[in-house]
Amino acid sequence: MNISKTILFFFFLSIYSWTMAQNNSRTTFSGSVKDAESKEALIGVSVFINEIKGGAATDINGKFKIPIGNGTYHVVISYIGYKTIKKEIEVKNAQPIVLNIKMETDNQELDEVVVTGRKKDANISEAIMSAQKLQMVTIKKIPALMGEVDVIKAMQLLPGVQAASEGSSNFSVRGGGTDHNLILLDDAPIYNASHMMGFFSVFNNDAVSEATLLKGDIPAMYGGRLSSVLDVQTRDEAPRKFSGTGGIGLISSRLMLEAPLFNERTTVMVAGRRTYADIFLPLAGDDFEDTYLYFFDLNAKITHKINDNNRLYLSAYYGRDRFGMNDIAGMGFGNQSLSSKWKHIFSKNLYSNLEINGTAYSYNMEMEMKPYGIELNAGMKDWNLRYDMTKIWNSKHTSRIGISGIYHRFTLGDLSNNNDENSVQIIEDTTLGCRKALEYGAYIAHEQVVNRHLTLKYGLRMSMFQNIGGERLYKFDDQYNKVDSVDYRSGKIFNTEINPEPRLGLLYKIDKASSVKASYSRTVQYVQVASNSTGGLPFDTWIPCNPNIKPQKCDQWAVGYFRNFMDDKLEASVEVYYKNMKNVLDFKDNPEFYGNPEIDGELRCGKGRAFGAEFLVRKNIGKLTGWVSYTYSRTYRTIEEINFGKEYRSPYDRPHNLAIVLSYDLTKRFNISANWIFNTGQPVTYPHGKYTVDNTPYSVYSGSRNASRYPAYHRLDLSATLKTKKRSWKKWDGEWNFSLYNAYGHHNTWAVIFTPEGENMIKTERMYLFTFVPSISYNFKF
Amino acid sequence: MNTISKSISLLLTVLSLFSCKEEMEIDIENGEKLIGIYGSITTENIRHTVTVTRCADFYRSGTPEMIRNADVYLIDNGNDTIFYQEQKPGIYETKDILSGKEGHTYTLHVNISNDKGERQEYTAEETLLEATGPIDSIAVKPLKFNGKEIDDMFKVCPYLQSLEGKETSYLTKVAINGKMISDTLTEYSTFHLEGFAGMYINGKEMEELYDKDDFPQSVYNLNATKDDEKLQPNDLLTLYFYHISKDYSKYIEEIQNSSGSNPFFGSPSNVSSNILPKGRALGFFYAASVVTGDLRIK
Question: Which residues from A are below 8 Å from B263, CB to CB?
């Protein structure tokens, strides 16, 4: 052993001895936190020790454990919706301290706050970045179109998220496509989250408990989409008695009822919503007399606590839009989902979730023009099985592992004559076939608290995708001409894709109020929408990847600085990201995607990139709440056969995006809210000339794609909410909401229309949807 | 799948109820001013024309720039050459009065000098399809929707033997007193008979299938609020019934549906063309058989 090695040995020995000496005077402060009334364990309660400027959050069992040394400590136990508890504890001779706490609800707060498991300083202390959580209480304060508050519309006001078009429920996250978002309703994927051409989403705000959007740094447990995960959970909080909420608006009404059953071990929630916009259609003229246009949806959820270690959840959704005229033509579309979850706690440090869910999206159209009638049916179904386990090794190490499998079935379209024997068979009954596939995932992820500053997390997801036979696959040459076809027998696996998806994250907590986070994630997407509509259509059919369509891949790097002010009342953050995408898809010019069995030949594949910086200042507590967000972002695609092979703007390339969302409680009963939004105009392809045929001029395009832009988009929305007076004898609380959408009536371009006009001219007109949309609604709860 | 395209148009129509329009100016993009070639050969015994123009600036009014001194000729079935001569600037006519032959394939050649004096050849090919049976008679009746007559709208209903083939494409135009009222491409009516293919149009077999209110069936609708579509006693209505190729039918439909940009559709692009080289020229050359019928209004 030479001298230098000897010195090094003694150095480490002395460090070790010092550490052991420190540990000898240390012990643990542990305990559990429960709801005083329901005796339910509370998850995510903040247990904060003033003297060490740190603490812990309760785990899934409501338990916590904090290493401390001898001394006197002041502990603050806080949880949103509950009265904060302050305790003094004294540790002597390194004796462990155990404290079991029962928290009482804060009735005053509960009127307005939905309980969530979020720590006050979660944005600083949790090792996840690019995540946004919105509670319904926040969402309900945001002024909304026609007074209908909506989870997705609220998410669109957050940095890095853009509405696909005015009023649309489709959204782009950090430059991704609208089909790059995994939308989950109680863990079941929703493939088309829109009602009424997107003006409403499928989420009934009375049924929703909270929504979380992960824009990057996507945990390894999630897969299958490139850009984001929107996780919407419906209510499963145990109510103390039969209760409900609802609302009556100008175009829709809704009702949610929930009740405890069987000694409060079971909770049942049902919610429904129905629009009645069609009653106004006759005002548009006699032609619309027999027109129907409405949607409805139903949510139901049962939560059953078998015992302290086992809990079952069963959630269902059914929604449908109907639109038609005079029994001549009609269409319908909607989602159905059924999800079940078994949450099992093996021990205080090991728990699991088993999920089985099914989801379906379908659309149908009928046309009855006697003596013939035709019908079209299309859609998709998924059956999903998932099992996840979480192991908390100690306060510094937590591991998660899981497996999942999805069976996809895509019905691309069955077109048939109606069954009336007197009808003319106007078309050949045709089917575009059915594509089936299996998608598997297995992951392992670990979170390691290295020290009080540094937390690392690392994980790997392995995904596999297999196409199952029973379909005809067309083959194409380099020019996308069909050259051959192969009929794969039913059940035969004819294509397999396997991809590793590493996920890395880092949290460096600078001090109590600030931290730096960084993340890298690779995501892979195997299914996509076969449509080039940016706003989203009910007829958007999903198709799987196959030997013609390669899986889309995305590598995302992000770094962020997070800083809280005013005792966590004010959150601020800046995040920068860069995304590199492979095998992204776009359509060739003049594609035929409806009813085309050779749709694979219409797609073009290339690469994409997106980058940006997101700034957010958010205030969650106090009379004035809300946020200001600004995003600078760019997103491009490069596809050899489009735009002469040069890089072009994605339809969601809108560099400047500003949202100011503010809400102020003037009194306990009266609240005013406003939001102002400014976006750079959407990229668009404008003509460069015109060509005239038989006295009809039409637009000529240069082949450049998305080289121009619509004018900038901006609008101001206002709302005021007046709560009815509280009376001790009243079992009913109500509130009136008045809102004004686009208060200064800005004409935001929704579409640009070219119409031939005399002398070989083309008239250019902008189409705009909404100006000054006032609304009034009455909301109640009991 | 036309059903979906029509449904999207229906959605747009409904959406337009909740929307407003206003004129706007757009920044025009830069691009090459392409050549446009549009011409035809039909079974009519006439001088057939080909128009050669250059695509114009978007905001330019008046007639487009006509291309002079082009060499234009047609190869009939790979053998005979039919020469065109420039009748007016950019408008080329066959030297002789002639009619196209059913089943013949015609290849159009247009040679133009570019700015550098180099010759560029453009070609297009179409096969002239067989004609329907002759138009035996025509009826003009009020147009009804859901059993109710629509004000000032009339339907033109011919009686003739159709062709077999569900995807056979037809085009109809109407002239009143010799003046073509279908004088813009947006007024052309294209359709397929699909399940009725091979039937006698508006014959007994079809009559049994339709409700009384919906029979006879229309192939062209007249809007009497337009001066040139108003019928008076003694007027002579002439119906032109073309059998056209599927590609030409698609071309007309694409122009009629090219409305601009909106979130329901993807990025707009040029209407398809059968002029080669692909992407270097606009327009269409079509070959069609045509039958005509007259009706003297009483």
Answer: 164-165, 168, 533-536, 750-751
The pLDDT tens digits of the residues spanning A539-552 come to 888 999 999 999 99
Distant-in-sequence, close-in-space partners of A424: CB < 8 Å, separation ≥ 6:
A371, A372, A417, B195, B196, B209
Q: Residue A267 in contact with residue A238, Cβ under 8 Å?
A: yes
- β-strands A243-248, A773-781 pairing: antiparallel
C-alpha radius of gyration, chain B, whole number? 21
Do you know the residue count of chain A? 782
Q: Does residue A424 register a pLDDT over 80?
A: no
Confidence of residue A423 (pLDDT cuts 50, 70, 90): low
| Burial status of residue A223 (CB atoms within 10 A of its CB: 0-12, 13-18, 19 or more) | buried
Express each pLDDT in A648-685 by its tens digit: 999 999 999 999 999 999 998 999 999 999 999 999 99
Q: How confident is the model at residue B209 (pLDDT cuts 50, 70, 90)?
A: confident
**pLDDT score of A114 more than 50:** no
Nearest CA in chain B to A539: B4
**Domains of chain B, each with CATH number or no CATH:** 31-128 (2.60.40.10), 137-244+292-296 (no CATH)
Other C-beta atoms closer than 10 Å to the C-beta of A40 total: 15
Handedness of CA B156, B158, B164, B170 (dihedral sign): negative
Contact B263 A535 (CB under 8 A): yes
Q: What is the DSSP string of B247-259?
A: HHHHHHHHHHH--
CA angle B229, B234, B239 (to 5 degrees): 50
Backbone angles phi, psi at A322, to 5 degrees: -130, 135
Write down the number of H helices and E strands in chain A: 5, 50
Interface check A418 vs B, CB under 8 A = no
Residue type, B55: C
Concatenated DSSP letters of A136-201: HHHHTTS--GGG---HHHHHTTSTTEEESSTT-S-EEETT--GGGEEEEETTEE-S--EEGGGTEE
Q: Are A314 and A302 in contact (CB under 8 A)?
A: yes
Taking the C-alpha atoms of residue A200 and residue A299, their distance in angstroms, rounded to an integer, is 16
Q: Which domains does chain A have, with CATH numbers?
A: 25-110 (2.60.40.1120), 131-781 (2.40.170.20)
Would you call B4 and A365 a contact, using CB atoms and an 8 Å cutoff?
A: yes
User: CB–CB of A267/A305 below 8 Å?
Assistant: no
Is A57 or A358 the better-scoring residue by pLDDT?
A358
What is the DSSP pairing of strand B281-296 with strand B35-42? parallel
Q: Distance (Å, rounded) from C-alpha B29 to C-alpha A707?
A: 8
Q: How many CB pairs under 8 A join A and B?
A: 247
CA atoms of A560 and A578, how far apart (whole Å):
12
Q: What are phi and psi of A198, to 5 degrees?
A: 95, -5
Query: What is the CA A407 to chain-centroid distance, rounded?
Result: 22
Rounded to the nearest angstrom, the minimum Cα separation between A188 and chain B is: 27
Average model confidence (pLDDT) across chain A: 86
Closest among A610, A603, A596 to A555, alpha carbons compared: A610
Portion of chain A with pLDDT greater than 70, in percent: 91
- One-letter amino acid identity for B134? P
In sign, the C-alpha dihedral spanning A444, A449, A450, A455 is positive
Asked whether the beta carbons of A680 and A657 are under 8 A apart, the reply is yes
Residues of B with Cβ-Cβ distance to A533 under 8 angstroms = 263-266
Residue-wise pLDDT for A75-89, tens only, equals: 888 886 677 888 888
Cβ contact A188:A317 at 8 Å = yes
Reported pTM: 0.83
**CA distance linking residue B298 with residue B280, whole number of Å:** 51
